[in-house]
Amino acid sequence: MPHAKIAGTGMYVPEHVVTNFDLQKYMDTSDDWIRERTGIQERRFAGRDTETTTTMAVEASKTAIERAGITPQDIDFIVFATLSPDYYFPGCGVLLQRAMKMREIGALDVRNQCSGFVYAISVADQFIRSGMYKNILVVGSEKHSFGLDFSTRGRSVSVIFGDGAGAVVLQPTEEEDRGILSTHLHSDGESAESLAMYNPGTHANHWVQQPVADFNPAEIGDMFMSHSMIDKAQNFPYMDGPAVFKKAIVKFPEVIMEALDANGLKPGDIDMLIPHQANLRIAQFVQQKLGLSDDKVYNNIQKYGNTTAASIPIALCEAWEAGKIKPADLVCLASFGSGFTWGSALLRW
Ligand code: ACO
Fold first, then answer.
1. Which carries the bigger pLDDT value, residue 234 or residue 158?
2. 231 confidence band (pLDDT: 50, 70, 90)
3. How far is CA 203 from the centre of its chain?
4. How far is CA 109 from the centre of its chain?
5. Which residue, judged by its Cα, is nearest atom 40 of ligand 1?
6. Residues 105 and 147 in one domain
7. Do residues 122 and 185 lie in contact, with contact meaning Cβ atoms separated by under 8 Å?
8. Atom of ligand 1 minimally distant from the CA of 158
9. Percentage of the chain with pLDDT > 70?
10. Is the pLDDT of residue 208 over 90?
């Protein structure tokens, strides 16, 4: 039975570098605090008027498509993962289809935040296994810089995120021990409000009866978007950092072990682990738990921050470009994030 292999990877990060020292100009924070808690030294921010989530995706996709040895007209399905779409609707998939002058192919948007790329890969793999499509473009792209609170009020969230895009082309392979071996997806909505952007939305306080931290739903009207929401900064993401940390360090190793067990493999068989770049401390904890050496885990959060759905494809592309992923290597992609959702994909390069 055919399954998918990664035929090409691409990435794009904006030119504009924003260091921790730059952020100090807008909020009460420090390079030491950010480095120590997250590992981040700098991130990239997209051009205000010149770049969008979709335009960055176009750049990453061009490279992935070229490396796969095909043209945009050969792509027969798009799966686009993002939490920062150009529009509330339609999704970025159709904007990418238009911008790259592709045929009238299907375009699916995936809203699984930090796990978006792993979910997208899994969906694309199933389409290839079923024989429905032969060239699928899978993209993760984020323009976080447009939706963060850069005042001291928002510092615990805004210092973490950066902009960028990554893409891969999936094609069928008949080689049994190569390509995507298996994918594993999970969710637990119990803590949906622990890492979320509530507004704009249609919830009208239905789900958030119990205020979390400084979020007070009683102060919000029933409206989709109101002046008071903006005045109270309730249109920015909320994160209960310690709750996310505690769950992430359990679920990351668990879902990696699930992938290894499903294929009769052990942590020592992994040649390269590419964890979602949530936070360097989380990645280091996972590395330690699995007993992996430094050369078996790829981290680049230090220079790009957390780029959510884009972080895995960016890291995958960079690791491959640096020669750290070689043919027949066992590569594990793993993610955890808002939802909570988490997942893994195990592949033989
Ligand atoms: N600069 C300086 N001080 C800050 C900043 C900042 N940017 N942000 C918060 N602080 C302060 C707080 O106000 C608090 O001050 P106080 O003690 O006077 O009240 C103090 O630092 C400690 O705050 P905590 O929130 O307890 O800090 P913590 O040690 O938990 O670190 C962090 C926060 C880094 C968010 C941590 O909880 C964490 O790593 N959580 C995991 C969340 C994560 O990685 N999210 C990534 C995005 S989601 C994903 O991709 C899965």
1. 158
2. confident
3. 25
4. 13
5. 241
6. yes
7. yes
8. 7
9. 95
10. no
Q: Is 306 an active-site residue?
A: yes
What long-range pairs does 146-153 form, CB within 8 A, spacing at least 24?
Answer: 146/46, 146/84, 147/84, 147/197, 147/235, 147/236, 147/237, 148/236, 148/237, 149/233, 149/236, 150/23, 150/26, 150/27, 151/26, 151/27, 151/233, 152/27, 152/28, 152/29, 153/233
Ligand 1 pocket: which of 279, 284, 335, 341 to mutate (most atoms <8 Å of CB)? Answer: 279
Q: What is the pLDDT of residue 211?
A: 45
Question: What is the C-alpha separation between 100 and 93, in angstroms, rounded?
Answer: 11
The residue among 224, 244, 243 whose CA lies nearest residue 234 is 224
Q: What is the CATH number of the domain that holds 343?
A: 3.40.47.10
pLDDT in tens, 99-141: 999 999 999 999 999 999 999 999 999 999 999 999 999 999 9
What does the pLDDT average to over 290-317?
A: 98
Q: Please give the full DSSP string across 247-265, using - where no structure is assigned.
A: HHHHHHHHHHHHHHHHTT-
Residue recorded with tokens 């981290």:
299
For 111, the domain range is: 3-173
Q: Give the distance (Å) from ligand 1 centre to CA of residue 34.
A: 9
pLDDT score recorded for residue 138:
98
Residues contacting 192, CB < 8 A, separation 6+: 207, 338, 339, 340
Walk across the sheet containing 341-348 and list its strands. Answer: 179-187, 341-348, 330-337, 272-275
Same domain, 47 and 149: yes
Q: What's CA 62's distance to the chain center, in Å?
A: 19
Selection from 26, 14, 241, 34 nearest residue 142 by Cα: 14
223: pLDDT strictly greater than 70 = no
pTM: 0.94
Same domain (yes/no): 121, 166: yes
- Overall domain count for the chain: 3
284 and 221 in a single domain? The answer is no
Token digits for 281?
A: 């401390």
User: 46, exposed or middle or buried, with CB in 10 Å at 0-12, 13-18, 19+?
Assistant: buried
